[in-house]
Amino acid sequence: MDLSEYVRRLDAELDTAAYASVDASANGLQAGPDEGTVERVAFAVDAAAATIEAAAEAGADALVVHHGISWGGIDRVTGRTYDRIAALVEHDIALYVSHLPLDGHATLGNAAGVAEAVGLVDRESFGEIGPVTIGTVGESTAPITADAIRETLDEFEGHAEGESAPTRVFEFGPERIERIAVVTGSGADWIDEAVAAGADALITGEGKQQVYHDARESGLTVFLAGHYATETFGVRSLQSLSDEWGLETTYVSHPTGL
What we know:
Elements lengths: L2 H12 L13 E4 L8 E7 L2 H9 L4 E6 L11 H12 L3 E4 L2 H5 L5 H9 L1 E10 L2 E13 L1 H8 L14 E3 L6 E6 L8 H6 L4 E4 L5 H9 L2 E4 L8 H12 L3 E4 L7
Parallel strand pairs: 2-3, 2-11, 3-4, 8-9, 9-10
Antiparallel strand pairs: 1-4, 5-6, 6-8, 7-10
């Protein structure tokens, strides 16, 4: 497949252009030739030296990630930025990035994947940021305890075999949880919106000190399941989609413990 066609398909599927005004990430093709072909694609959460090297070892023509290397532009190509770009050029690997578009996609997104794993139904868009959303909110098929949800979250990639601390829970909501909001990664800023949406709980990746007080005062249970652990679903979905398009694919697992 032509690289330009692959990029066009991903951009269209993810509605990349809709997020341009709100996302610091330069979504889409961040590094690569104007013309080229793609036969094998690697997928990872982060574009880093380790994942680029793994993609090269797998013989990938492209690397698709959630977290790229350009956030609001690149002023100088030095240090770690140089090393990453040099590795991409040396191995002739194109880099495609989808940050917020891959968080918010209704079926392929990170939040959608977390919601599916937890068993949420009747899902709606959630987590407004400007004109777009980056999360989802839905109903549990039956009232569920915080411990049961924690057990599910602890099974995510990134928690296995001590790769990170277990899910942290601030249990200030009702004993039986029915409605749950999800914003992956750093989503604790959406506590007030979760309350306004009638949620009993919010699942996100990480939070700062104030999360405890905000959750307690709002009467909301908040799950901090890990930034990496909540954001593997999107790239996995894009891998499956690329399989359907006839490409060879491989997944690079590189948990950060965070």
